[in-house]
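Quick entry between incubations.
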Amino acid sequence: MKAEEAKHKIIELSAQINKHNLLYYNQSNPVISDYDFDMLLEELIRLEHEFPEFRFADSPTQRVGGSISKSFDQHIHQNPMLSLGNTYSKEELVEFDQRVKKFAQVDQVDYVCELKYDGVAISLIYKNGVLDKAVTRGDGVKGDVVTNNIKTIRTIPLRIKSDAVPEELELRGEVLFPKDAFLKLNAAREELGEAPFANPRNAASGTIKMQDSSIVAKRPLECFLYYVISAEKEFESHYQSLEYAKTLGFNIPNTMAIYQNIDGIFEFIQDWAKAKENLNFEIDGVVIKVNDFALQKRLGFTAKSPRWAIAYKFKAERVETRLISVDFQVGRTGAITPVANLEPVQLAGTTVKRASLHNADIIEQLDIRLNDLVYVEKGGEIIPKIVGVNREARNAESKPFTYIERCPECGALLTRNEGEANHYCPNQLSCPPQIKGRIEHFISRKAMNIDSLGEGKVELLFDNGLVKKLSDLFQLKHDDLLGLEKTFVSDDGLTSKTMSLREKSVENILAGIEKSKQMPFPKVLYALGIRYVGETTAKKLAKHFKSMDQLQKASFEALIDVDEIGDKIAESVLAYFADDRTVDELALLKEAGLHFELLEDENADSAILNGKSFVVSGVFEKLSRNEIKELIEKNGGRNVGSISAKTDYVLAGANMGPAKLKKAEALHIPILSEDEFINMITT
Ligand code: IVH
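Done. Structure below.
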């Protein structure tokens, strides 16, 4: 393709993709399938690789990330990013209003009320209408340049829609992590044994500082804008400037309102104090700003904050109640979580009886003791949290809390790895909640999908001593199950439900277990619940090693050689197979008939590349790097991350690093071009 033609095509594809993005994200009205959309994007990515001179800063390919930043450049803010004065009372709001009026020598001032978004501040700098830089607040004077990460946020225009854009335009706003996505992200992290984020704000700030923008692209960040700074464009008022930004395509929430008096403002505040629960993002107050820019200018700034604005912060609803006792919960991975049992108390519309105490450090920092009167808040508006102790009310005889040393469920001595906050019960194979958790994971939908065995039934089987390990499931007999009974009592002890297994459910359970034997090897591997081996990792390992035997024999080096497998996962896999009891258990599962090998048809379209390992590097013309990697696997080959003497081929595209090339040459590894590779699999 000629350059001119490519440029044309790139522009056309970009326009098409932008249109579909808008239909999908802004109007929730997609008109093409996700697959067709991905195909357009793939084509654009391919053309931009081939003609990097036409990879424009506002290209929609920037939304999917892919850049890696070792560290972030710093940018000095043209205007420092200040904070706002805070208040928690109506009286102080009245004083603020009086100060402004006195200064302006007027009787009435227009104020704009906006929500105070509880996220991470960001400054967006546009040059000639194209997003040039996105910078964090940092210390207020200079911040980190996180443009590639911010470009993944769909509601931030990469190019402004207008013919008359100022040469330079800066907008400020807040990046937020939606509440529902936050809960999902944390659940996924806990599933993998990773520390959850404390609240959506931390999730947002952790995400925009990530090094790999393609991971950022998978998290649904939001951005609301609340401040326009433009040297060239003069507005009369703040409200007008935001209305202008809205016409340029910026995400300006329509929750703002103008008031002339404190009573109106206070009503706005009280309405939102209630309605905030219904928002899918967090707010921690309301910001009140003088609308008139001329007056703003005259009022100016103190060293820390503008005199023309103030933040009214919602008081975190806080109540006092007594700590009755502390329970220790043992999770599927053996992590111990202390949970406080509280005298029931009303908080933000719900009755709170329990609150997480997180870990031993938190208990020590707060110096919480049994029988203390403690303060409870809705932390991050989602989960109740103990924030302090009423020391004055403390009983003189009370003693510091001593953390447990042994597992409350199985009595094993707890361990705590250096640098980790949690204690763990190391008794993975015989600690009841760990066994039950492992079985629940094994039968779950994404694993062996035995849906005839819900959570209650696992408990029933465990309590009756029928299932103590995964392989026991496959030994269950009709007569063992028929007539089993268990009564479940509700948390408050007021209601109970008896489950008893009759003929029909017994048949369903046995049929579900039998059917699960057809699950392919990657699912089986995931179902085992090896720490840090989630669904994707299980697929990668299964494809690479092809059988449980091969995986079991793999060394640390062989493991980290697999594409995208790092030290942490490799160590966890090694530790898993190092336990003799695991090995015995695996033998039983194999005997039961589970798939411990990839089947031919999952494995490959052909066996042309059987046993061959490839390192793919650089940029290709006809296929994307991912397509090439898929083709290698489909034809029976393996992708490895780095070149070693054992590598069979290096597939070199444009821009492959010279060091890699040298290494391949030194080791006499054949270097293939894209065409040679395509020939190899098609002839
Ligand atoms: S205006 C010069 N408006 O609150 C003042 N800030 O403590 C510019 N924030 O760093 C800030 N919602 O991150 C403004 N509607 C809003 C806001 C808002 C949240 C944050 C912002 C700022 C902090 C001030």
